[in-house]
Records
---
Amino acid sequence: MTAWQLDPNRCFSPEPSQRAVASELFEKVRGLPLLSPHGHVSPQYLLDDIQSPDPATLLVIPDHYVLRMLYSQGTPLERLGRQPLGGSPYEPDSREVWRRFCANFHLFAATPTGLWLKHELIDLFGVTERPSAESADRLYDHLCERLALPEYKPRALFRRFNLQFLSTTDGAADDLSVHARLREAGLPVAPTLRPDAVVDPTRADWTDALAALERRAQIPVDDYPGYLTAIRDRRAAFKALGSTATDHAALTAQVERLSGPQAAATYSALRAGRASAVDAARFAAHMLFELAAMAAEDGLVMQLHVGSLRNHHGALHLRFGADIGADIPIATEWTRSLRPLLEEFGAHPNFRVVLYGLDETNYSRELAPLAGHYPAVRLGAPWWFFDSVLGMERYLDAVVETAGITNLAGFVDDTRAYPSIEARHDVWRRVACNWLAGRVVRGLLDDDMAPWAAEALAYGQVKETFRLG
Amino acid sequence: MTAWQLDPNRCFSPEPSQRAVASELFEKVRGLPLLSPHGHVSPQYLLDDIQSPDPATLLVIPDHYVLRMLYSQGTPLERLGRQPLGGSPYEPDSREVWRRFCANFHLFAATPTGLWLKHELIDLFGVTERPSAESADRLYDHLCERLALPEYKPRALFRRFNLQFLSTTDGAADDLSVHARLREAGLPVAPTLRPDAVVDPTRADWTDALAALERRAQIPVDDYPGYLTAIRDRRAAFKALGSTATDHAALTAQVERLSGPQAAATYSALRAGRASAVDAARFAAHMLFELAAMAAEDGLVMQLHVGSLRNHHGALHLRFGADIGADIPIATEWTRSLRPLLEEFGAHPNFRVVLYGLDETNYSRELAPLAGHYPAVRLGAPWWFFDSVLGMERYLDAVVETAGITNLAGFVDDTRAYPSIEARHDVWRRVACNWLAGRVVRGLLDDDMAPWAAEALAYGQVKETFRLG
Amino acid sequence: MTAWQLDPNRCFSPEPSQRAVASELFEKVRGLPLLSPHGHVSPQYLLDDIQSPDPATLLVIPDHYVLRMLYSQGTPLERLGRQPLGGSPYEPDSREVWRRFCANFHLFAATPTGLWLKHELIDLFGVTERPSAESADRLYDHLCERLALPEYKPRALFRRFNLQFLSTTDGAADDLSVHARLREAGLPVAPTLRPDAVVDPTRADWTDALAALERRAQIPVDDYPGYLTAIRDRRAAFKALGSTATDHAALTAQVERLSGPQAAATYSALRAGRASAVDAARFAAHMLFELAAMAAEDGLVMQLHVGSLRNHHGALHLRFGADIGADIPIATEWTRSLRPLLEEFGAHPNFRVVLYGLDETNYSRELAPLAGHYPAVRLGAPWWFFDSVLGMERYLDAVVETAGITNLAGFVDDTRAYPSIEARHDVWRRVACNWLAGRVVRGLLDDDMAPWAAEALAYGQVKETFRLG
């Protein structure tokens, strides 16, 4: 039996002339440092620098894209190590969870999760056989052994991945002292402010989030000016710790500009519990405008990702909470929705906004045309379900002809699965090089321009877009 | 002049390495039996076992996809053997119809209809020249001769096609005695209940359909409980004759859950002619929920296909009735629309729902994510206009990365063109194998996993999805 | 250093068997005359027959797709030779503009604009080095020299391009005497009526446009019958000068049929300033119906292109006017919107409508099915952002399987960039041939049918669709 192997030409087209160009381009960019300005790694994990003791705890239980697939094929989350909310906590049987994962590894055939896991297992962990019911225990023991070694500690992996910059995602009221200590330790890690909870009064946790904001900023948020000051204060605190960007999620891209008095009155009504649901939604839409104004002031790059209907499966959400793989996209509109924001700040020299979506129809119809006009707009990486070989290819196919290379924001891995970071960047770089190679061999890109374009997609555009210079 | 021939490598990529893998995979699955759990073949046709006497009657006049293309290029339906409603019936001149079809055969170049017809003519009927004005009469005579032979009788074709299971589509009030006789004759044919007419009060025929239901079920439908009992009775009658699934068409995927008393009151108002159009639509949306509840009880797989605006061309509809090729798709929303149904039954162990649509934008945005989460959801085959080489490829490209192989429902031919059944499955199997081969040669699917995936797409997934075990 | 060169196999697939077929098909059609029945070349430019003196004036300043890309990367329009409205006019420094363009030529890598420019520069102007900061001055001098030669005069290019027919785009009140003189000069150039300003009362210029219409037609437009008569008069005047088509832009495809009295009353209310915005929109939707009725009468082919939200960037629009690259597409609906028009005229023997859109999701979902049914419907070329290699491929992929070859309207270049006309048709012909070659080598199109299909897509379909016979 031959060993389970990674194809050195994976992701490349099989057509020999394209493969040759792709391979040559990839050799030029594969060794570039990784920039990861958008992700969900825990800063505490990097500070503690202690690795998970077993592969289920590291690779299965916390990864909702692994869980999602197993759940969709009938495995209850309880049997995958997830604990129902409110129950007495218990230690999951990691070996059992790992066995279930291995016995179902075929479910990941031809999926990006399968590709990343294969990369990690073979390249990072030296695995030589595919997970299966039969190999599960051998792999478990092998991986536990490896995970105990110093070279698998989080910071050792950080160096191995050649990470030049990594950003976490943090709430407006989060204690940033962990970040301060990471900076002292010399790690190129910065927080990213994601203030959704304090700017969206349609959320159930808005009032609590404001209270926490007030405590953290030590600024009263009783009225609208105080509220804005507190948010500005947090932006400054993040920036002082190396932030270059903020992150914003919304169900739609709707932006509305309220006048100052209108906004202040709505804020007061919301605080007093006298505002309607419509007012709450309008205020949230207005706050996107207000946050753009702040970004034009302080120069933090605004990231906006829209279109995910969170926690679609209510019963499961009640039982297990968020992030269990039941966020489902909806159709998105950008052209009219974002217009008030873009008309005001789209040509502002200090403003930059990166747009991410889950509705591929927007790529060629709205996002590439917007990025191909407004100086402030950069088109974000294919997000989430499209962070995949074919998803990336459809993205490049749909946007480059209209927006060019230089209006793209490069790649972000957007992951909480820390060991997968290298694998994800590897896929992007391979796909980007292969896509460019396709242009070259069809006579649509000068061959002496392709290395420039490959470097831009693999590294330069993300550095420039996120002001990491 | 060389004979008109089927390319033995049709549908495969021209790139040699992919073609080699595709061909190898296809050889492993091409001989598997056909499962056809969703289609529109007449059970009477199989019971009578009498073949159409000429090729126009068999291949042209009843196939609205053939008619549609000829009509779009200016041939009136009357000249294609279709008779206006309400006129005195007459025998169409089959040879004339056939001549018109042959003279226009170039219209089908590069279309799936053209591909199926070519397969049938060459492989099934031994034709060696392409239809044209010049060859029309020779082909007509040749085909008439063939059709008179016993090996072209419907049941002989059934055996030739290696059909292991075939399902028809039947109304709630349809007499199932034909099906009982087919069972007695040992044919693996079952009915599929399509109760649209009795569950959608926005339809003009709702009242008549209810009367027919009452007569067939011998259960009074005066009130809501009786109505539900009558529907349950029909489901049981279908199940007793081998049904494993039901089929439901709707313009949108809108589901709404009315309380029992609300539903009963609305039913009564509808029956009394006192309900508004809005009430009618809400009741129809509620009935999808109710039918899902019944499916969770009796285990019949629920098929839901949405997004076709029927009879778009009103004048032609008045003149020739339905099914003349003027059903046009509209944009579809699934994520919010289907949520009430999925939240209630999406994880029910006895419930299964297969989703079909005509809006490709749903594939990656909504359908694959839903199928990749809810255990009850299977993603139906590319439907109708997408039952084609490129349509299938776009489908696989868009859904497998998110939903994997095992959340797909395999293939259904959905045809009333009986002689095309083998050709349609042949195309699907070729395209699926070629798609998997593409994954293999790009290093994205382990080569020793590909045969499993090919078998799953060609046969296993449809068997498992439709509970044909 | 090797010369900058056009790949003779550009646009073709690199796979050798497909490339061979594509190349063979292309050789058969590359020399066919060009038909350009939809474009924005100025008739005055052809009448004057004087070429622009320098490359910035010819290739940069008037082309909003060139400007758009440079603007999106931070170059203000003022520095690209565009003059703010209302300021004192000045002579732009063409050499400076050209230098800026050349220094940024890499922005056009892998875009259609880049491909057309490369074609023009090398093939038309004999350039041998790529534009760059370093080469800018040499190229400027070379191009100025060339532009002074008689073979670069507009009519000489007309002959060189082998243009068999070219249509301009003209308002309802435009003076057609230029066209009369072009006809006298023997040029196969015709006007195309684009009456948007007189049929859409939601526009700010509607009243002025009506006054101009009245003056031009010498027919009072005080009431609705007069208004219709004036429009009919203009249609006849255009037709007398060789027009075979009209052109209509709308934000949506919404058509509504008002009764005669309703329409007349609404018209009067609009004229008196007593109508609501809703009335104005309904009247515009009604006028699409009315224009279709006129087209069924006079046989002018109706072109309808929808889905562009014009002048998205308000501030820039105020400063520089329209056509500065800030028109952004929106999602479009055709199936229900166009139904009233198609039900009435979709099968009318004298009526023909060509549909263009900027929302690719319509291709397979709505447009191909409509074109594949209604005899009057032809599916227009991929418009605007999709007039590109990949855009054309997605179009063909999405529509041919459903609509076939013969329901497509072939190609239109839709350009105001006169020197790019040949390059654009070259791209379409190459892409079409390569696409057909892909069908051939996959066994999905008989190889002896491919030349017919190539000729149809390259030439025949546009001739037939636009009644240029």
Note: Residues 154-465 of chain A form a domain with the TIM Barrel fold (CATH 3.20.20.140).
---
Amino acid sequence: MATPLDSFHAVIPAGGAGTRLWPLSRASRPKFLLDLDGSGRSLIQQTWDRLNDLVPAERIHVVTGHAHAAAIREQLPDLTGLFVEPSPRDSMPAIGLAAAVIGAEHPGAIIGSFAADHVIDDQVSFAEAIGQAVAVARTGLVTTIGITPTGPSTAFGYVESGDRLDVEGAGSARAVRSFVEKPDAETAARYVAGGAHSWNGGMFVTRTDVLMGHLERLQPGLHAGLRTIAEAWPTSSRDDVLDRTWPGLTKIAIDHAIAEPVALEGGMAVVPGEFTWDDVGDFAALLDIGAASSPETVWVDGSGLALSEDGTTIAVVGLDDVIVVRTHDALLVVARDRAQQVKDVVAELRRRGRDDLV
Amino acid sequence: MATPLDSFHAVIPAGGAGTRLWPLSRASRPKFLLDLDGSGRSLIQQTWDRLNDLVPAERIHVVTGHAHAAAIREQLPDLTGLFVEPSPRDSMPAIGLAAAVIGAEHPGAIIGSFAADHVIDDQVSFAEAIGQAVAVARTGLVTTIGITPTGPSTAFGYVESGDRLDVEGAGSARAVRSFVEKPDAETAARYVAGGAHSWNGGMFVTRTDVLMGHLERLQPGLHAGLRTIAEAWPTSSRDDVLDRTWPGLTKIAIDHAIAEPVALEGGMAVVPGEFTWDDVGDFAALLDIGAASSPETVWVDGSGLALSEDGTTIAVVGLDDVIVVRTHDALLVVARDRAQQVKDVVAELRRRGRDDLV
């Protein structure tokens, strides 16, 4: 008997270094490959586990660059669907490539895209949200999961929900009125008080043919390129066509290419995600998700997070809410409320020509 | 022709780990062996240089424990007078040993004791102070150098000066009225405003026979033990007598054994030291003496001192007046105004049985 997720494929775009988590994350060792919460599984492995609980391994696809393909294969030994981009062109070409190829092979397939480097807690709620999103996507709407805010965060974009939709198996689905960028504190507080706004977790669930249709209309050049690649995919000219076509694809995020314009046309839906979610954007977020300090740490009138990647002992004296990260080749000390500025360290190191450290 | 410093011998007691400079200083690598100010010379080498400018190498003596004898010989290749204590018995037995042996060999000798781990700037003023102190000591007074305060420090003891003395070649000498312990801030401010108080830099200049005479009266057991050792010193039984006698010597600092009681009897004098002096008691002091951060350090809205002993890059974001010290095996992050509490880290590490780190 068919189950609701039978035609569902998961796509994991794995890109971006996460410069605000330097020196843990590096260009050569991006955030998604790291075990940031000390769980024993990297963020992409946790993402895999979460999705593999819903669909078999052969329906989980990862899109990444050449630099990280080997590490991903090593971390995800059951992965069969790895798309290797010739160069980074942002999230729309990455997800579009998977959509075009999967849709050609499995007409009517529904894909959901999930960032490789987010943290989600509560698998039951996650599965419930995916089930509803797939039911809504089947009706032809591009569906996102709106994370129920735990507070007026200014670190995330928001989804404004509109009228309730009448979809069987998706009792909580609503139309999306609009997507809004990261707000200021006052606006965020108003959003959370109002109840119509949820966090944009960057998760999109859609029929491949619906996505390709939107692309054909909104980004015809990109659409044509993806079609060309998808047609060559099962043939011996796959790599030639990919290498030739890819550099010409429009570099654009799925939010700008699809989510924002389609929402304004009434083509987007949102289902609530009641689970704990974080994009672990900086070290303050890492503290928020409960990351533990290295057990050897000595605190004397101090508090915060101390991570010693090389196992050496860290001592903190007379400083509260401080984050200390030691790797074999670098050391970061940052005030918790300045965690966003760590990217400035990476910029400065690049300026100094210390690409070996970034 | 005889010069005023002809009978002068310098004695450098080299002991004490300096736990407030952990993780730079360790039991096995005490403060005096470290190049703390980046000058290229360790503190004991700087002390040697300062004294060797005044007296020849054969009149500079170091007293230390077995653990550091080899390192001192390596750092001071011209040193001929090394006294190795069988065990640490504080400063009075250490200086007393040197006084007894030097006095037996050179009747009428004047010794000056100088800590191995202090920083002094302005050799001209230092030499001027020593010259005056030796002139006063020749008259039979135990003479200290009172450091002219640069501010109302609560980190040092003070010397209260009394009446002016009439000694040729020591126009600034005064009697010592008393020695006072580290004061509170209000008292320190009053001392500095009053003008009669100077910092006790722990430098004592005295005729050996005068010192031994005070010891015979005030610490007769210690005096007898030192005499016994000094008599055996030129003989083949030196080591036997030293090992047998040393453990019974009273463990006491020269301040308590001699300076404080003799001052109350009117037997102490003080000459002013107009030079910059610091005992580099903690990392805040290290900042005060102008220690420079490792050149690779990246500061983003931050300030303080960042020392990377292993050459790795340190980045500090959003923290002012912070001190960061990285060694190959440990890491300290401390607020400048909490620098004294670093000793609590060492205590905690001992409690945890991490003697390898202290």
Note: The two ends of chain A are 51 Å apart (CA to CA).
